[in-house]
Structure to design on (411 residues):
């Protein structure tokens, strides 16, 4: 049996900073809502904040290359500043995290360093696998942020399949741990608490033993549940850096690893939400015609998808495999190509039906609501079919996404 390639890390946390202002939501969230990020700015003001070390993706489609380069440079400079003046390092640490939101009372996780050599976003049969198809065009912009960065801030969430909840039982029996943070989170994010687990402790050894044994379930242990493209960017950066290093440096270089949040797919506080489609430049008649052509040509189960806008309530589509998102994304992509539309503008991926309805009301277009994914089928699907179509599911609603808090040096 192989060993799970996850490890304790040297974790940086802010010393003396206002954690409410320090923690902001993952950069890939609310990418269609500049107003959300304006609210974040108003809350943070001049306080130390992870906002200053990231480039929210809301700006990627709205700013020119020079503006984005300036944002990346400013983020990297702020990392260097915070390393000197704000961050305190907790060496050889695993963070046990409990998150509460308006939707769940508790979601439990572990923040660890994941060996990127055990991960692939290109379909290789490795221990850490992508949950969704990777859009290669999305990697360079994210890699550019990491390339000159001295720190990483984790929002990648990696799932493991432990239906017996062995790790949860170990944590409940662990007794007192050192609490290192406890704070409410801005803009309906709920709250988060974190305790340090020493990397040399029996508790971590017992947890690691459980993780090692998970390989027997599916032939691999981990699926990237959220932040697929960010982890792909970290992997791409490592592959570009690796040839310049000697063999010894390749084994221990900090860029070989990525700080991630590990979650049990069976945790009661983990909800799996669909990611809806918001399309523009495509009429409902065109969408309906494409769906009818697909239905005529294929046999399978007919499903009714909820439609927002266009004066329609539903779209009938035949599902030929395990997921209705597969034919839907296919016909959307074909219409985008046929109509010569910009894919980034023509199809956006939206968390939550309320946000989908808001976008349709404010910007026109058509919203297509998708059903939730059965969590118990996730690992089996990936084992049998490989990655799902891009943006098939989301771990929780938008405001439940991971907020940046911990840091780790990558140079």
């Amino acid at each position: 049996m192989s060993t799970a390639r996850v490890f304790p890390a040297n974790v940086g946390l802010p010393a003396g900073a206002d954690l409410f202002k320090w923690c902001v939501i993952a950069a890939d969230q609310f990418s269609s809502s500049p107003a959300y990020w304006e609210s974040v700015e108003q809350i943070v003001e001049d306080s130390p904040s992870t906002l200053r070390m990231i480039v929210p993706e809301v700006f990627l489609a709205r700013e020119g290359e020079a503006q984005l380069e300036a944002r990346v440079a400013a983020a990297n400079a702020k990392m260097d500043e915070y390393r000197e003046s704000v961050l305190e390092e907790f060496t050889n640490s695993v963070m046990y995290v409990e998150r509460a939101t308006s939707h769940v009372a508790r979601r439990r996780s572990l923040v660890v360093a994941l060996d990127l050599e055990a991960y692939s976003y290109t379909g290789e049969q490795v221990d850490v696998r992508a949950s969704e198809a990777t859009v290669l065009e999305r990697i360079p912009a994210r890699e550019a942020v990491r390339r000159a960065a001295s720190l990483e801030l984790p929002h990648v969430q990696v799932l493991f399949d432990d239906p017996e909840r062995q790790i949860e039982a170990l944590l409940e029996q662990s007794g007192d741990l050192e609490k290192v943070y406890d704070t409410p989170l801005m803009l309906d994010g709920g709250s988060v608490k974190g305790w340090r687990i020493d990397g040399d402790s029996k508790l971590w050894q017992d947890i690691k033993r459980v993780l090692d044994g998970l390989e027997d379930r599916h032939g691999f242990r981990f699926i990237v549940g959220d932040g697929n493209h960010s982890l792909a960017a970290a992997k791409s950066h490592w592959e570009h850096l690796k040839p310049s290093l000697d063999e010894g440096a390749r084994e221990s270089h900090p860029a070989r690893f990525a700080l991630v949040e590990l979650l049990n797919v069976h945790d009661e506080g983990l909800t799996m939400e669909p990611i809806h489609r918001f399309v523009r430049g495509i009429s409902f008649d065109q969408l309906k015609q494409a769906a009818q052509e697909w239905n005529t040509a294929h046999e399978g189960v007919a499903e009714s998808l909820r439609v927002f806008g266009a004066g329609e309530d539903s779209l009938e589509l035949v599902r030929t495999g395990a997921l209705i998102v597969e034919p839907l994304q296919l016909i959307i992509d074909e219409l985008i190509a046929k109509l010569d539309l910009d894919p980034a503008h023509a199809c956006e991926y939206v968390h939550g039906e309320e946000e989908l309805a808001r976008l349709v009301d404010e910007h026109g277009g058509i919203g297509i609501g998708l059903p939730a994914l059965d969590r118990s089928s996730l690992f089996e699907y990936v084992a049998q079919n490989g990655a799902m179509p891009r943006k098939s599911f989301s771990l929780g609603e938008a405001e439940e996404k991971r907020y940046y808090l911990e840091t780790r040096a990558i140079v």
